[in-house]
Amino acid sequence: MVTFSSRRTRTIVRRSVLGVALSLPLMALPARAQAEAEAVQVEASETEAVQAGGASGDVEVEQSTSEEIDVTPAAPAQTAPVEQAPAAETLPQAPASPRVLITEVIIEGIADHPEQERLELAAYDAMSVRPGSRVTREELKLDLDAIYATGWFSDVRIEPINGPLGVQLVVQVVPNPVLTRVELEPDDNKIKPEVIEDTFSSDYGRTLNLNELQLRMKELQKWYADEGYSLARVSGPTRVSPDGVVQLKVLIGTVDGVQVEFITKEGETTDDKGEPLKGKTKPWVVTREISIEPGEPFNRKQLEEDIKRLYSTSLFSDIKVTLKPVAGEPGNITIVLGIVEQSTGSLSGGLGYSQSQGVFGQVQLSDSNLLGRAWNLALNITYGQFGGLANFTFTDPWIKGDKHRTSFRTSIFLSREVPQVFQSQNEGDIVTVTDYEDNNSRYAYDINNRNNPADRRFNNVANASRQFPEESWFDFEGDSVALQRIGGNVIFARPLNGGDPFKKVPWQVLAGVNLQNVRPINFNGDTRPYGVPSGNIRDGRIPNDEVICVAFDCADENNLASVRFAATYNTLNDGRNPTSGNFFSFGTEQYVSIGPNSPTFNRFRTTYTHFIPVKWLKLFKGCRPKPGEKENCPQALAFQVKAGTIVGQLPPYEAFCLGGSNSVRGWFDCDLAVGRSFGEATIEYRFPIISIFSGEVFFDAGTDFGTQASVPGKPGQLLKKPGSGVSPGVGVIVTTPVGPLRLEVASQDFTGEWRFNLGVGWKF
Q1: C-alpha neighbours within 13 Å on the C-beta side of residue 353
Q2: Distance CA 393, CA 311 (A)
Q3: For 576, phi and psi rounded to 5 degrees?
Q4: 245 & 276 share domain
Q5: Would the pTM count as exceeding 0.85?
């Protein structure tokens, strides 16, 4: 019997005494009391004790001297079936259970327990029986179940004992051990140890309560759900050791495999003949985008990212996901992907305008899923006032079997264009001459003009040179200098993911080779290796050093062969409209001589961009969210720095250009400088205005570092390009299906010279 010492226990004792006092009037009926006591004694002798058992969802903690003991759920009590008697018969009334007088309630089994008072209180408060109550055996069973349901005890027994004044109830309890540690099995349960520690740390050092344990298990369940393990189930405990180590079981849900089904837009999986639909796309093109391998835990978030990658291929219009249980393997599922393919072949065309090509028309024929392997084959033809382009490309976005997700691209091209290097918006162009003879004179004379030492015209340059070999002669034509390029390239690109194709990494490297033949021509396609600045010809003559070689070494054509290497680092939060993060790139291209008229030089270029999120202007309603609404206010302060240099035998048409919609915006394309080296810097503030409209305020600056004079022929100096300048400006950006459309106005060096610019896509 417990030795009462706590204040709460003394209260219980007082209640017992009060019960005895209330029962004194009943002592006048000793025979009845004696009979009731004997009845209870008979039942007690038959059952020995009322013992807890069969409580659904509870576990029994076995007592043992060993370190650990198994915990097995108690089996539910079996109930015999009740036969239905005929309606016509009168059933005999079952005798009512006898009620006995309870004079005292005694809690035993927790003497000297560190939480004795708490456990006594929990057991007593769970009971409805009080001293002075008359109860039946069934009511005692309910109290027993109630004590057990508190979660504090591994075993509960109620034993009625005859006393001098009535029946004493001795409640024998076995408390759960003090919780010291919680372990999850199996070991590969994906949960972090610190999560377990944070969940149960407040319960360590206290008596294990199975009800509170269930609440903590729900917290673990929520953690699994929040982390994407939506099939995970936490159960138990499966084992409780005497020293307070609790083991829980995790059934996390395992992927047995991935199955691809081709379906219609309506969800049909079979054709008119009942046969499974066959798609164009190879199944491995789909499954290689799924990062969850067979045997790995199912993760909803991981699968959602996989589905996003599938959509980004632009091969499918809809993807339906079904999780199919595996028969006979609880917790195992098969991911079934219902694929709705979309048309990947396209024929498109349009009209446009550019400085290099004037008004042009464009036709493009492509298939982005060639042979069902996600290969892209495209033919692009552009023809304009001043040139054209025919480009045939083949792209494999992911070489099959490569764990690094390496892509491959090759192209063959034929282009004719008027390079911006040889043009100026205000100072004329470098134009073609049919023939030129350099005799190292001060001036070169046009054979079509009489203003020369002979005071007459000549039929050709050779004739003029024979008669006046001390003078230089040229045959003026006047077409803008154009270039014809024929060649091809091969490029490989790879993210530095360490062999994990699904790992998001900021670094990507690129390597490739390029071969091309470059020929300076006029508008008729005739070879023209020389040019003169149209604005510098005076009275049929021009300073001889202003007749320039359009190509390297004044050749009719140049053969360019190069090896290219580049790397990028990208942490931008949004590829379309970033507001935070960095972008860094550097690249080098080494040109090597492969024969006559093949220059050798190196081009190096680097770019750094940084975005800082700000909240300066709140014109857009998304910048002023109402309570409970999510803010939608993409605005940023952006910085960009670019630089590059060329070392070696430079053809003038390969020099760097400054100015234009993607450079210093106050100048037209290439109107600021043509140099061997360059540097540019931009500060730009972007902010939303309303709906599809955004605004920008920017400041551009650029310089050639004084290198225009080191470009062969000095085209930048001949066309009076300033070499350096700054450009403040503002703009409006319209979001369109093809990307941002920029409408900008920018100043040249804070002067009254303003340029209106129309650009597609962000400057950076």
Answers
A1: 4
A2: 23
A3: -90, -45
A4: no
A5: no
